[in-house]
Amino acid sequence: MLETSEELETVSEAVNSSQSSMSSESCTSFSRLSFDVLDLVPQPRPLYSPESLVVKPHRSSESSWQAIRSMVLKRTASEGVCGMDGNSSLSFRDFCLVRQIGSGDIGKVYLCRLRNEDVEEKRCYYAMKVVDREVLALKKKTQRAATERKILNMLDHPFLPSLYAQFEASHFSCVVMEYCSGGDLHSLRHKQPRKRFSLSAARFYAAEVLVALEYLHMLGIIYRDLKPENVLVRSDGHIMLTDFDLSLCSDAIPAVQSHSLSSSSSPDLPSSSPAVPRPPSGHFACLPSQLFRSKKIQSFSAAKRLFVAEPVTARSCSFVGTHEYVAPEVASGGSHGNAVDWWALGIFIYELVYGCTPFAGVSNEATLRSIIKKPLKFPNVSTISSRETQARDLISKLLDKDPESRFGSKRGAADIKTHPFFSGLNFALIRSATPPVIPQQKTTSSRHFGGTTSSFDFF
Length: 459
What we know:
Elements: E1 6-8, E2 31-34, H1 35-40, H2 63-79, E3 95-103, E4 108-114, E5 125-132, H3 133-138, H4 142-154, E6 163-169, E7 172-178, H5 185-190, H6 199-218, E8 221-222, E9 231-233, E10 239-241, E11 248-249, E12 255-258, H7 269-272, H8 295-298, E13 305-308, E14 319-321, H9 328-331, H10 339-354, H11 364-373, H12 386-398, H13 413-416, E15 455-458
Antiparallel strand pairs: 1-14, 2-15, 3-4, 4-5, 5-7, 6-7, 8-11, 9-10, 12-13
Helix pairs in contact: 6-10, 10-12
């Protein structure tokens, strides 16, 4: 069963609250939208049209992008309709919904395809997230939806969503993203023996999630909602993080630091030293000069350099996340920063390996109290392998209740990648590695919502 992302704005009652959820009270109103009504409503100009821009590099050769651009060219030739940037843009009428495939706190997700693709073998399928702006306003979550759209526009990474189109239809906002046919890691874990992954499989998924979090942190984005339900599995078995409505956007200052520098001193280096006119020679000569903020940094030998871009100065007091995954500083009602993602990574690895989370209680309040007060415990077993010993060490360092000393809090993924649990793993080539599970290819049902006459519910 999918667990939605939840939010509680008042942090002072975090532990003693009688609420069973961290989300705002659900709105009781429902909205219905009919396809035929959409065709009669004048279509507003799109807020943003990714399909009219340069194809994102890591998706440029995929048929899904080619199908989108082909549809744009056809519309330009037949209708001459242009978007804000002078190019034709897609709208709701260009897509045919197939079925609902998910729902979250602020929207529902539908499997869809482009209209006029009559040959089943040539059809490309997408995921369309639809939110009702009026409902969002009533639930006071308009800013969350805006944050997610902003982040989706920024992303260009193999383990993060590709945004194909964005438009409005009546009072609904729609974003079209890539479709992951393999479900999510929560469902996949329940299909494994004893409902847990092998150490090698957990290591693989943890590594890909680590790379995705590293990219987000380089952009100044603190994810704040890591859990197996939000890690989708593509048709090739690799992962994709999803749902960014709880994320925090901040700033990260990239720098190249010495591997031998202590974690306590490293975060001050980028901001305390002036920029230099030229990047150093060697392995990092291809990086822009503004990344190198210190002459001291330039003197390090290339073999001992680490690229660091961690939003260490970001702070927030919002109480966000899923109860079993929130960090102690969040559970206690205090402010938090980038370290919450590394705590969540520790919970994530623990759940993949042991089939449960370490601090789960009989209620949400009990879970929060356990996170704050109880020490980390592992299942008692007679013997454990060296790899499991390494996994336990990594989890223990990530689940340090003090965010200042938590593993990754200062230099992020640059430090975590060096842990023995990941020894022998080539992070640069992990996209080419063979995943533990390759989803079975299923024939997508052609049943849909009836063209322009059927209606369906939102919220």
